[in-house]
Amino acid sequence: METDFHDLADVMQQAHAHTIAALSPDAPTLDGVTWCAVHLAAVERAIYPAVHRRVPEARSRVRRQMAVDHQLQHALWCLDRRLTGNMASALTPVENLAARIRLLVEEHAAGEAALLAELCQVLDEDGQAVLVGDLAALVARAPTRPHPNTPHVRFTDPLTFALESWVDRIRDAMDNRTIPTPRPRRIALPVGKWGAYLTAQPYPVVRAAKEVAEDEHPGKRI
Fold it and tell me: What are the residue boundaries of the structural domains of the chain, listed by start?
């Protein structure tokens, strides 16, 4: 799935809307967990540090906002386990977990909007555009599952973010889990000579496909 982000408010509203829609009282799904987990991870890496740097008087509110986010991460983690059949979470009704998450998402969204409004007052249009690009890139690479128990240390956060994302991608592939959030575009490369041999494809056909790919992506080694 691909999404075009136009401004900071658009980024936030899309994530909140997708989360709430996927956590309906009747049938909450893992899509809501993924949307919210990705959003929280990206915001923590892009928005909160920017507010901390550019709006010093809001630093205490950033800490309170992160405390709310931690509660939300834990609730998402519980719902993820419940929806995937973890017996330790079987006693908690899914509807109760989804309802708590919806309330926490509303609280998160209100605090986030306030911080964002203050940040936008000190950023010009170019600065906001850069932040939108950074946030969109982080959304595409963010962990797809909640990690409430991971310690966050300023200097190791980038490594933690990348490691959690890598682990989640492996788990998603093993579980055959559909990821609804935007993902990086990938170029489908044609099969090479030995690949054609191993898959019993006629190499002239593969070679023709390779030439087409080179024409479409000049300068890229195929």
Answer: 8-175, 187-222
Q: Is the pLDDT of residue 3 over 50?
A: no
What is the token pair recorded at 218?
């000049």
Are the C-beta atoms of 65 and 112 separated by less than 8 Å?
yes
DSSP state of 199: T
Can you tell me which residue has the tokens 């962990």?
Answer: 143
Each residue of 82-123: pLDDT tens digit?
988 877 767 788 888 999 999 999 999 999 999 998 998 898
Q: What is the pLDDT of residues 74-83, one digit of tens each?
A: 999 999 999 8
Q: CA-to-CA distance for 111 and 126, rounded, in angstroms? A: 24
For residues 142 and 41, give the distance between their C-alpha atoms in angstroms, rounded to a whole number.
Answer: 6
Backbone phi and psi for residue 14, each to the nearest 5 degrees, phi listed first: -65, -45
Q: At what angle do helices 157-175 and 30-54 cross, to 10 degrees?
A: 170
Phi, psi of 94 (to 5 degrees): -60, -40
End-to-end CA distance of the chain: 25
Instruction: For 161-189, give one letter per residue: b (16+ CB within 10 A) or e.
Output: beebbeebeeeeeeeebebbbbeeeeeee
Cβ contact 141:166 at 8 Å: no
Specify whether the CB–CB gap between 24 and 105 falls below 8 A. no
